[in-house]
């Protein structure tokens, strides 16, 4: 029969075959991973477009939607100006968290937003007056009852106006949550009443550090 190759050559051939098989397997795996990642990015982009959108107006009467804040991190809180204690506490906490993050100039910009759940009383002027007590860049958003309902629904925020008293006054029951939205428009986190300003700032910083933008 054919002469047998010396052992060293046989090992070299076997190694080359195994190496080629491994390289081929690795290439297929990488290709599969790239396709999976591409599909995942497409899904994320679709989610980002549809997730938590809103059509509201700021205190200057300028129409605002989620698209206006793409490219920036956003901390967003739903509340109302007649709220007796919860909303002022949460807005002070939000303002403090933003101040803590602003101390590090290396961090990307962060936009704080306040969306009213009480458009009947919280027009642009009422919002502007109320927000003067908090962070100077805190932007107030209001709209028609339908627009406000749609915005709350997009963030799955529970809102229910209570009965009116003899003066026509009422309290609005609502979810007490602050939402973190990344520069692509994706929800990253939400923070309840139990979280301190320091904890919120630390969490936001962690998300900023780990953030990888969605490719176009």
From TrEMBL:
Q: Which residues form the Thioredoxin domain?
A: 45-209
Entries under CDD domains matching the protein: SCO (cd02968)
The protein's GO terms of the molecular function aspect are: metal ion binding
Q: Please provide the Gene Ontology terms (biological process) for this protein.
A: mitochondrial respiratory chain complex IV assembly
GO CC term, one of those recorded: mitochondrial inner membrane
Where found in the cell?
Mitochondrion inner membrane
**Keyword annotations:** Copper, Disulfide bond, Membrane, Metal-binding, Transmembrane, Transmembrane helix
Q: Give the residues the record marks as binding Cu cation.
A: 83, 87, 174
Where does the chain cross the membrane?
12-28
Is Transmembrane helix there in the keyword field? yes
The protein's matches in InterPro entries, at most eight in alphabetical order, are given as: SCO1/SenC (IPR003782), Thioredoxin-like_sf (IPR036249), Thioredoxin_domain (IPR013766)
Q: Which Gene3D superfamilies match?
A: Glutaredoxin (3.40.30.10)
The protein's topology relative to the membrane is:
Single-pass membrane protein
Report the record's disulfide bonds: 83-87
Similarity-based family: Belongs to the SCO1/2 family.
* Name of the protein this chain belongs to: SCO2 protein
Q: Which organism is it from?
A: Emberiza fucata
């Amino acid at each position: 029969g054919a002469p047998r190759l010396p052992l060293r050559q046989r090992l070299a051939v076997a190694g080359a075959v195994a190496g080629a098989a491994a390289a081929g397997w690795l290439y297929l795996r990488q290709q599969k991973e790239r396709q999976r990642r591409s599909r995942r990015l497409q899904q994320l982009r679709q989610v980002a477009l549809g997730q938590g959108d809103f059509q509201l107006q700021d205190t200057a009467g300028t129409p605002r939607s989620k698209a206006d804040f793409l490219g920036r991190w956003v901390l967003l809180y739903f509340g109302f100006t007649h709220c007796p204690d919860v909303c002022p506490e949460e807005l002070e906490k939000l303002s403090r968290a933003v101040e803590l993050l602003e101390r590090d100039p290396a961090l990307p910009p962060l936009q704080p937003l306040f969306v009213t759940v009480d458009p009947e009383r919280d027009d642009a002027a009422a919002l502007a007056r109320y927000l003067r007590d908090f962070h100077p860049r805190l932007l107030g958003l209001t709209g028609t009852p339908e627009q406000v309902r749609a915005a709350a629904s997009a963030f799955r925020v529970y809102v229910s106006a209570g009965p009116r008293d003899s003066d026509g006054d009422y309290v609005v029951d609502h979810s007490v949550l602050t939402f973190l939205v990344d520069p692509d428009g994706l929800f990253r986190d939400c923070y309840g009443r139990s979280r301190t300003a320091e904890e919120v700032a630390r969490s936001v910083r962690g998300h900023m550090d780990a953030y990888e933008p969605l490719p176009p």
